[in-house]
Write a structure and sequence with these properties.
With 264 residues, the chain is mostly helical. The chain has 2 domains: 121 residues, Tetratricopeptide repeat domain (Serine Threonine Protein Phosphatase 5, Tetratricopeptide repeat), CATH 1.25.40; 75 residues, no CATH class. It contains 13 helices and no strands. The longest helix has 30 residues.
């Protein structure tokens, strides 16, 4: 999925983790591979921040990791852990972003920045959501992570954004169910198709796929010899989506099979 990397939340988090007293530049002229050069914690953190500000996100992440490695018991190490996760996220190395944010939470579960760590994990899954023609495991992981943000921090700005993203995640999952259901229909596997379309109506009823799912249920019901069920689904379509293309098609389909409906 595409989204603006520098959201308000991301900018706010970045500002929160950067100490006001640090200089934006930490001395130039050093060797290029600064990740393994021993230096005082302030200079090392400032250099990591400078690399991040310049867009060298992977170098910045490595330097933030080095802050923790060289100075594990300093207050800077805690900030560096989350800044490393943030840097990997910006670099689109989502697996490392998730790993580092999860590590931060395992060490500092009650920290004031824990909400952002949970949010960063959710964003990292969300960014990897693929199209509906591919396996949706990542989509389900994004859904789980976004729900966790909303459950733990319902009044936060992160939860508000998570709720918006959950709608899109549900639409993706419903789209996958529709794609599988249509495939089963083409194969003549009407009962399997019917189950997929029912999933959309029952679990994802607020998504854009619901009208088509109801129409497909009309089709599968007729194919399974259950015309009264087809009438029921057409009625639900008419009540909830009276002006939709799918209701018009369902109406014509049921009328075309009116004889079998009357006979049942």
């Amino acid at each position: 999925m595409s989204m603006k990397l520098h959201t308000l939340a991301a900018r706010a988090a970045l500002a929160a983790f950067t100490l006001a007293g640090l200089s934006a530049c930490a001395g130039g002229g050093g060797p290029k591979d600064v990740a393994y050069v021993a230096r005082d914690v302030e200079s090392l953190y400032a250099e990591a921040q400078r690399r991040l500000d310049k867009g060298n996100t992977l170098q910045a992440a490595a330097l933030f990791d080095e802050v923790e490695r060289q100075h594990p018991y300093s207050p800077w190490a805690r900030r560096a852990q989350l800044m490393s996760a943030f840097s990997y996220y910006i670099a689109r190395d989502y697996n490392k972003a998730i790993q580092n944010a999860q590590r931060f939470l395992s060490i500092h579960p009650g920290n004031k920045d824990a909400p952002y760590a949970y949010y960063l994990i959710a964003l990292s899954y969300y960014e990897q959501i693929s199209d509906v023609n591919r396996d949706q495991k990542i989509t389900e992981q994004a859904q789980t992570a976004l729900r966790e943000v909303n459950r733990r921090f319902p009044q936060s700005e992160y939860a508000a954004d998570a709720r918006l993203k959950l709608d899109l995640v549900a639409d993706h999952l419903a789209g996958k169910e529709m794609e599988i259901g249509r495939h089963y229909q083409r194969m003549g596997l009407w009962l399997a198709a019917d189950m997929r379309f029912r999933n959309v109506v029952e679990k994802f009823d607020t998504t854009s796929h619901t009208p088509e799912a109801l129409y497909r249920l009309c089709e599968s019901s007729l194919a399974l010899g259950l015309p009264q069920e087809a009438v029921k689904y057409a009625a639900v379509l008419g009540a909830n989506y009276p002006g939709s293309e799918w209701y018009e098609r369902a109406y014509k389909l049921v009328n075309k099979n009116a004889a079998s409906v009357s006979a049942s």
